[in-house]
Amino acid sequence: MRYLTVSLRPTDGEGFHPLGKRLTAEASIQREAIHHVELIDDGTMLMLAEGSGDRERYEDIMASSSFVHEYMVSGEERWMAVSRFDPTEPVRRVMEWRRQADVVVETPILFRADGSQRITVIGDEAAFKDMYQEAMSLDSFAFEVVETGEYDPNTERFTRSLTPRQQEVLAAAVDVGYYRAPREATHEDVAAAVGLAPSTVGDHLRKIEERVFETIVQ
């Protein structure tokens, strides 16, 4: 079994979805990751996503969007949101292809600052070839292979499970000496390095550490 990590970037200026474009453009909101997404039988999409920042602004955008049928949010500074919405035609095509393809999409799917998504799929060379041909036929997306290799869930899962913001916080914590013995930095020092509140840094580090321990014991 092999893995293929790709970067998908919108090429038409509308993002993967007009709703996604609005959320990405909102400076008070950080879109962190997609934990589950599927096309359901009524033709709408169901998504479980992770975000941080101004939850009220997120809810304002969702409530005012003509694409959104329903949504629910749980959490404060960092929150999980379930939503059901209408896909665009290119997105619908991708999701219908995914239903039939012999690949497994690894989650979470991470959001990047430029609006692209980094996606890792698991399958064989034949499935990857079919996926590449399908991607090349879509004018709305730019498709770039990031890396590929033999799939080892034990060694790859941890780094792929971190959001870009968590990777940034972890790198800063290591750089300033937060994990040295004896400890040479505090949450405040890490926060100053990344421009976040100390409480937010503490939340990120706890989630990172939780994922480290989960990886070790599983």
Would you summarize the structure shown here?
By secondary structure, this protein is an alpha+beta fold.
Oligomer: single chain
* Beta strand count: 8
Strand content: 25-35%
What's the rounded overall pLDDT mean?
85
Question: What number of domains?
Answer: 2
Order of strands across the main sheet: 4-5-3-2-6-7-1-8
How large is the count of helical segments? 8
Form type = globular
Rg from Cα: 18 Å
- In the predicted model, the low-confidence regions spanning at least 5 consecutive residues are none
What is the chain-wise order of helices and strands?
EHEEHEEHEEHEHHHH
| Class of secondary structure makeup | alpha+beta
Largest pleated sheet: 8 strands, antiparallel
Fraction in helix: 40-55%
N-to-C terminal Cα separation, in Å? Answer: 20 Å
List the helices and strands and how they pair.
Layout: E1 2-10, H1 18-25, E2 29-39, E3 45-53, H2 55-64, E4 68-75, E5 78-85, H3 89-100, E6 104-111, E7 117-123, H4 125-136, E8 141-150, H5 153-161, H6 164-176, H7 187-194, H8 198-217
Antiparallel strand pairs: 1-7, 1-8, 2-3, 2-6, 3-5, 4-5, 6-7
